[in-house]
Every structure is written in structure tokens, then in C-alpha cells.
């Protein structure tokens, strides 16, 4: 009981130092505070000032199984975003995780990796592993057979500005979609159910 109380008090203190304005204590212990708060307890103010999406992203994955003789079988693309959308669409109480886990992992990946998909920090490596694990687990749940590598494809389609075209304001040209392919990542062998 005492251990539980101690952990709770330390947690509350560290989260307080994370969200409090900069001060001598939070500056002195910033590494320890960040290590505890990120990525699980990270705080933001999106509830009060949401940052609307400016693009729709379709995240798909394909997997590869390499046989002992060196030949590889590659699956077709599996739409992970569509699976998330269908899990939310007719659910009266959709899971926040189902709605946001994959999208937030991708947004974090964009922030920590360059356009060359090279991680530039320990946090970037952690985010890459997190994204890879989410994709591998979701593919394993949907895809028959075993696999040892996974690749992601992200198609980003800009969201058109609101409002209909009028005589004084012609319709804007539809921006074209961008497709980004991530490298093949090795994963622990997954045997899908």
C-alpha cells in the first residue's frame, strides 16, 4: 500500500513539474521528468484548442515472408486506416485508442524523422519501433499467415477548404495526393490468427 501511494505521489509531482511554467526545479530535473512523462503521460491542450487535420491519411501495410531458401512472398496492401474507421463508424462508444493510436504514431514519426526516413534521436528510434509494432499487431490480426518484415505506405490527401465555389470565388484546384513508402522493417515473426 505504501509503495502504491509513493508511486502515485511521485507521478503527480513529475506530471506537475512537466505542465508547470518553467522554474528552477523543473529545469534541474527536466531529463528525469521527460523520461517519466513521455510518451505515455504526455500532456497537451488539444482538448481546449484542437488542431484540426489538414490532410486525410490512408495508412496501409504489406508484409513479407522469407522462406528458408531465400524466396520472399509479399502480400497485397492492407488498409489499416479503413480498419480503424470501421471500428469507430457504428460504435456508440468508440475507443479513443481505435480512433487515434495509428494516426498519432504517424504524426510522431513525421516529427522525428526526416523525409529520408532516418531516425535522428533515441526518441525517433522509439517512435519508429512504436509505429512498427502497431502496424505489425494490426496486420497480424487481419492477415492470414506468418511474416517477418513489414512496409508502410501513407497516402496523404489534402482536405479542401470549406465552402462551395461561387461566381466570385472559383473552386480551388484539388491538390494532388502524396504517397510515401517507408522502408521494409524486420519484425519478430508474427503468425497471424
TrEMBL record:
Pfam families: DUF5819 (PF19136). It comes from the Bacteria. This is DUF5819 family protein.
